[in-house]
Amino acid sequence: IEAKIADNLTPWKDALDLLDLDTCLLKDKSKTIDPYDDALYTYIDQMYHELCRFPDLNKDCHLKFVYTAMQGVGLPFATGLMEKFGFPKDCVSVVEAQAHPDPEFSTVAFPNPEEKGALDMSKQQALDEDADYVLANDPDADRFTSCEKQKDGSWHQFTGDELGTIFGDWQLLMAHRRGVDPKNCLVINSTVSSKMLKALSDYYGGVY
């Protein structure tokens, strides 16, 4: 792969002639296919079948969430998943000022949801709407964080280790309840993560 990349660092001859230089898209799209919609719906459907355990309970959810895409691409995935999983539409509120891609990230100093101050707009909206949780992706939607409103009105932002522990415990618990052989439950974490997943694996009898 590295060799192929090295061989193609220079644009192919006449390649620019195929592009609209204002949009950097192909001038003639008749021989191209945009896989976005298929990829989006396939992903949502797969997540539903693999992860949605209690759709009937989801329909009766009384929690309120505020979601921010941090001016990136996560909105259709997040709202699509919530809808597919059966959550009522009125339990999810979107930070509209950060809902769509903006290469300037004009509403935040640094578009990392783990950065101090990045979720201020989301938290304020959650307070205004009496929401229980803030859910956030980074702009390219490969990272996730969440905040929980405390009784005194302050917010607890979960660390990556805390979220990993919560998600890991849920998956292992669901496997246990379905009667899955613990030896078929493989638990892996990165070298910089805490050992909480190992403790959970040991508790449920999984393979770490």
TrEMBL record:
GO BP field: carbohydrate metabolic process; purine ribonucleoside salvage
GO MF annotation: an example: metal ion binding
InterPro entries cross-referenced by the UniProt entry: A-D-PHexomutase_a/b/a-I/II/III, A-D-PHexomutase_a/b/a-II
Source organism (scientific name): Perkinsus olseni
Protein name in the entry: Phosphoglucomutase-2
Gene designation: PGM2_9
Limits of the Alpha-D-phosphohexomutase alpha/beta/alpha domain: 42-148
Keyword Transcription regulation on entry: no
Gene Ontology annotations for the cellular component aspect, listed alphabetically: nucleus
Pfam family membership, one: PGM_PMM_II
SUPFAM superfamilies: Phosphoglucomutase, first 3 domains
Top-level taxon: Eukaryota
Keywords (A to Z) from UniProt: Isomerase, Magnesium, Metal-binding
